[in-house]
């Protein structure tokens, strides 16, 4: 046992341990505080090899020690899967962050959640693999390097493709590991020996193989179709990489004269992009629009085109109520117009170059930037009398997710994947229960997208990425003839076989969409398409994919489709989607708003564990508002754990006290009979722990991480620290009986060890450091066995201790109400039925300690005391009451005088508020929030008046009785 001079800092109660309490039973500890400190300091030094600190020698957990702990885990090989034949592996593929990236809160969220899954399943004994890697991020990386070159006055075209890609690789070697090191700082227990980059040889071979197999099945084709074109990036981008925003703009009204008609025969169209009129191939009206029925079938003259005619057609696609009800059809520059043109067989005219300037089809406007052309065109329309008017209009503007520029719909020759056959099987996987999506509501979104899927444009006009494995033969029409091959050597051989030995070939200049490469991530990283790859057979399919719901379609759905196509099975059984991290006001974090919270800065101030715990408390799929208040609270939780460890370590037997350790280890908590024999506080806390283990384990298996965090937090802080640690002091400091103290020591150690296990996946650093400080801890916490479930618990003891808690709270409330000094001990008369008296009185010392009662004046009976009218009567529960003598707590006469004065002052304040509110000038003229605030203050003042008046009347009645 430890010295009674120690004051626990783990309790949030205002009542601190008073060493004078129980003075008649106080005994000297068998182990002095100084010897205890010396013993555990030596243990820490000997066992931690300079890596770990102990609460015995450190005031609080040192965040700077986290990196040392992480390196120790990694050096011990704890992150590698422990393969057991016939066991069920648990595998999580990391969403590979961009090689250009630096850590942000989105990374912190996915790392936290995936690491929780991994650490839990590792402790459960499953062969556990977390596959790490980085993505080559075609567009983002090329932009970064091009900007770097621009600072040197160099363009990529000046270098040529080979030299430029060399510079990109140089950049990657120098800066590409930044994000990986930052992810490690978050505690990610990945098997870094398996780290992969999407341009690695194995993964690149898999990408080529996937392209070839899809092409062989007729699922990849080449053609000129409408795509989203990024003029600045000079490449097509996916529909999913286009973000639409409502922006102020202009609606231009323009006259289109009817060929062969009079000056009054014209149609007025309304458009937001007049510069595309050079690409008009028709003018359309709704067939039910009587205003224009007479013009259907005639020709309209496109303005400023020197008289070019286009047909006036009718189609129900035209909205009669938008603008004038007349629509210009520019199929080369609008997705809807393109579809209409293909349906009706209209020609397609492209008026724009790839850099956003107008081409020769625009005549005199050729070479002008699209926005400059718009201004000049409108000016010229005004001069020719064809400009009707322009008005403000809010438009839905498509912008590049990467560069933010306005995207241009453009017909371009690209490579596509036919998605319907792939999507059909991916839909079946969910409907048949082969794939579970969490939260469930995203299943509907997944099904809707796959049911309405468009073909996927997979080519990008970049130099950085996986080159499309297609070659063309010089002098042969590229539209008709091309060669798909795994290498240039194979392509040349195929070309020579068909065209002769002197043939020349060249490779398609485009690269594949980065998402095409990433969609192969789980199985290509494990060795596909090498069917003999040991890892692929052992670990595929993976167990869980965890990622943000914002890339459900970019990545998740495509991985499902690719996985089923190439391996015959879904690549993972569960998809867990998390939400976005927002600021405390619920706003999306952005540099513009200045509300970005840097994870590394947060770690430096609050510690990794506090950040992880805060992020993990969110609900699956829901956005999380991150605030400094939450972080501060969870940093305090870290300190609370540390102080609890400090208390426990200081109150264990000394190392050489063999009988004490034998007695401590003799206490078992895994058998019904052993739990039933425990004293009430120990039986209660052990039972509560066993219930917690079952609940938490079930929640881990269901991925209910928010529930897990809250349940452990509540048990540790409310039950263990605030109640059991405080209750244990009655045994540790004043029992005078080694066997009684031993029960508490064993319970403290048992409960704390299991708390550390349950909490380790959330807060790995502080829990490992505390674990290393515990005696007889065995192996590292990261690989220790998960607590077993279905352990015995005594529900009756829980109810009984809750009665003790209710009585204690009631006494504490009365003490607070009467402002009793914390150090002052008072008497109590407890009234209950015999059964309740038996177990409450059996814990008389605990009740006295927790309630600040005078142990010698705590009495138990079945009926109230004779002087009950001079006591405060409290009801703690059904059949459990107590009487607290007023004379023990306050000087009644002095208190009456004090309250009488206070009542006069309170009445004056209340009357002032009511006078203000009864003034019509105030109520009618003052701002609504001011009036509302005055009413709230008046209601609060009235409530306090009533309470004070009742208390004063109660005390006056006691004075009268006493007299």
Automatic annotation (TrEMBL):
Pfam families given in the database record: Anticodon_1, tRNA-synt_1, Val_tRNA-synt_C
GO terms under biological process: post-embryonic development; reproductive structure development; valyl-tRNA aminoacylation
Residues of the Aminoacyl-tRNA synthetase class Ia domain: 69-627
Domain Valyl-tRNA synthetase tRNA-binding arm: 891-955
Enzyme kind, highest EC tier: ligase
Record's GO cellular component terms: cytosol
Domain Methionyl/Valyl/Leucyl/Isoleucyl-tRNA synthetase anticodon-binding: from-to ranges: 684-826
Coiled coil ranges: 889-958
Statement: the UniProt record of this protein carries the keyword Aminoacyl-tRNA synthetase: yes
Keywords on record: Aminoacyl-tRNA synthetase, ATP-binding, Coiled coil, Ligase, Nucleotide-binding, Protein biosynthesis
EC number: 6.1.1.9
Presence of keyword ATP-binding: yes
InterPro entries the record matches: aa-tRNA-synth_I_CS, aa-tRNA-synth_Ia, Anticodon_Ia_Val, M/V/L/I-tRNA-synth_anticd-bd, Rossmann-like_a/b/a_fold, tRNA-bd_arm, tRNAsynth_Ia_anticodon-bd, Val-tRNA_synth_C_sf
Catalytic activity of the protein: tRNA(Val) + L-valine + ATP = L-valyl-tRNA(Val) + AMP + diphosphate
Gene3D superfamilies to which the protein is assigned, alphabetical: HUPs, Isoleucyl-tRNA Synthetase, Domain 1, Valyl-tRNA synthetase, C-terminal domain
GO molecular function, one term: ATP binding
PANTHER family in alphabetical order: VALINE--TRNA LIGASE, CHLOROPLASTIC_MITOCHONDRIAL 2 (PTHR11946:SF93), VALYL-TRNA SYNTHETASES (PTHR11946)
UniProt similarity note: Belongs to the class-I aminoacyl-tRNA synthetase family.
Protein name per the record: valine--tRNA ligase
Lineage: Eukaryota, Viridiplantae, Streptophyta, Embryophyta, Tracheophyta
């Amino acid at each position: 046992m430890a010295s009674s001079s120690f004051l626990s800092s783990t309790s949030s109660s205002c009542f601190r341990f008073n060493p004078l309490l129980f003075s008649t039973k106080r005994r000297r500890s068998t182990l002095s505080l100084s010897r205890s400190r010396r013993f555990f300091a030596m243990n820490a030094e000997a066992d931690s090899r300079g890596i770990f600190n102990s609460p015995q020698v450190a005031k609080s957990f040192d965040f700077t020690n986290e990196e040392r702990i992480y390196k120790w885990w990694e050096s011990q090989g704890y992150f590698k899967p422990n393969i057991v034949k016939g066991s069920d592996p648990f595998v999580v593929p990391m969403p590979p962050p961009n090689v250009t990236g630096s850590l942000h809160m989105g990374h912190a969220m996915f790392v936290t959640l995936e690491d929780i899954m991994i650490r839990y399943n590792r402790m459960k004994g499953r062969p556990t693999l977390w596959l790490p890697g980085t993505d080559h991020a075609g567009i983002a990386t090329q932009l970064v390097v091009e900007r770097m070159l621009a600072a040197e006055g160099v363009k990529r075209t000046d270098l040529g493709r080979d030299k430029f890609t060399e510079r990109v690789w140089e950049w990657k070697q120098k800066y590409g590991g930044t994000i990986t090191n930052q992810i490690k700082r978050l505690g990610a227990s990945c098997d870094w020996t398996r780290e992969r980059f999407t341009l690695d040889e194995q993964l690149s071979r898999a990408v080529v193989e996937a392209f070839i197999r899809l092409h062989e099945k007729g699922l990849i084709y080449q053609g000129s179709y409408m795509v989203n074109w990024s003029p600045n990036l000079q490449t097509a981008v996916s529909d999913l990489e286009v973000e639409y925003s409502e922006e102020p703009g202009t609606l231009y009204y323009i006259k289109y004269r009817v060929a062969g008609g009079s000056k009054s025969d014209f149609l007025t169209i309304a458009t937001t992009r007049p510069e595309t009129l050079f690409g008009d191939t028709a003018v359309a009206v709704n067939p039910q629009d009587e205003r224009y029925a007479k013009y259907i079938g005639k020709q309209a003259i496109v303005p400023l085109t020197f008289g070019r005619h286009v047909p006036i057609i009718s189609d129900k696609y035209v909205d009669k109520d938008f603008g004038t009800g007349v629509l210009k059809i520019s199929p080369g520059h609008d997705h809807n117009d393109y579809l209409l043109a293909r349906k009706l067989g209209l020609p397609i005219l492209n008026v724009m170059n790839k850099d956003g300037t107008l081409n020769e089809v625009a005549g005199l406007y050729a070479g002008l930037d699209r926005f400059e052309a718009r201004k000049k065109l409108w000016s010229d329309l005004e001069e020719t009398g064809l400009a009707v008017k322009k008005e403000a209009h809010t438009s839905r503007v498509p912008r590049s997710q990467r560069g933010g520029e306005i995207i241009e719909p453009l017909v371009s020759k690209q490579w596509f994947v036919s998605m319907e056959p792939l999507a059909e099987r991916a839909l079946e996987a969910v409907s048949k229960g082969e794939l579970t999506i969490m939260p469930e509501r995203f299943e509907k979104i997944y099904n809707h997208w796959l049911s309405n899927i468009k073909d996927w444009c997979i080519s990008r006009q970049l130099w950085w990425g996986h080159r499309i494995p297609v070659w063309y033969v010089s002098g042969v029409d590229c539209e008709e003839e091309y060669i798909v091959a795994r290498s240039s050597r194979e392509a040349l051989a195929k070309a020579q076989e068909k065209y002769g030995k002197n043939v020349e070939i060249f490779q398609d200049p485009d690269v594949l969409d980065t998402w095409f490469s990433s969609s192969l991530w789980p199985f290509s990283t494990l060795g596909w398409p090498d069917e003999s790859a040991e890892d692929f057979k052992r670990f595929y399919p993976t167990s869980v994919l965890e990622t943000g719901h914002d890339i459900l379609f970019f990545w998740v759905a495509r991985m499902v489709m690719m996985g089923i196509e190439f391996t015959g099975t879904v690549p993972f059984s569960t998809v867990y989607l998390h939400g976005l991290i927002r600021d405390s006001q619920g706003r999306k974090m952005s540099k513009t708003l200045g509300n970005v919270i840097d994870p590394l800065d947060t770690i430096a101030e609050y510690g990794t564990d506090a950040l992880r715990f805060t992020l993990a408390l969110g609900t699956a799929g829901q956005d999380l508002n991150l605030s400094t208040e939450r972080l501060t609270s969870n940093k305090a939780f870290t300190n609370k754990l540390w102080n609890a460890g400090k208390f426990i370590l200081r109150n264990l037997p000394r190392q050489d006290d063999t009988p004490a350790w034998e007695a401590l280890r003799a206490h078992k908590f895994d058998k019904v009979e052993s739990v039933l024999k425990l004293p009430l506080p120990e039986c209660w806390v052990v039972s509560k722990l066993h219930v917690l283990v079952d609940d938490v384990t079930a929640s881990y298996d269901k991925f209910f991480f928010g529930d897990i965090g809250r349940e452990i937090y509540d048990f540790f802080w409310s039950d263990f620290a605030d109640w059991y640690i405080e209750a244990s002091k009655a045994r540790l400091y004043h029992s005078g009986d080694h066997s009684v103290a031993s029960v508490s020591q064993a319970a403290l150690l048992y409960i704390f060890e299991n708390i550390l296990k349950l909490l380790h996946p959330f807060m790995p650093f502080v829990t490992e450091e505390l674990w290393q400080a515990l005696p007889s801890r065995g192996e590292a916490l990261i690989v220790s066995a998960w607590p077993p479930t279905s352990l015995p618990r005594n529900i009756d003891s829980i109810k009984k201790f809750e009665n003790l808690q209710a009585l204690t709270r009631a006494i504490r409330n009365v003490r607070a109400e009467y402002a009793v000094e914390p150090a002052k001990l008072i008497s109590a008369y407890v009234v209950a039925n015999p059964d309740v008296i038996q177990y409450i009185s059996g814990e008389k010392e605990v009740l006295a300690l927790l309630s600040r009662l005078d142990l010698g004046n705590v009495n138990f009976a079945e009926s109230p005391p004779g002087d009950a009218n001079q006591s405060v009567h409290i009801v703690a529960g059904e059949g459990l009451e107590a009487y607290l003598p007023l004379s023990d707590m306050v000087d009644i006469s002095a208190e009456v005088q004090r309250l009488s004065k206070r009542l006069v002052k309170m009445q004056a304040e209340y009357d002032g508020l009511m006078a203000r509110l009864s003034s019509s000038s105030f109520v009618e003229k003052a701002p609504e929030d001011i009036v509302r605030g005055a009413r709230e203050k008046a209601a609060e003042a009235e409530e306090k008046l009533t309470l004070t008046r009742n208390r004063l009347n109660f005390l006056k009645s006691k004075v009268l009785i006493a007299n």
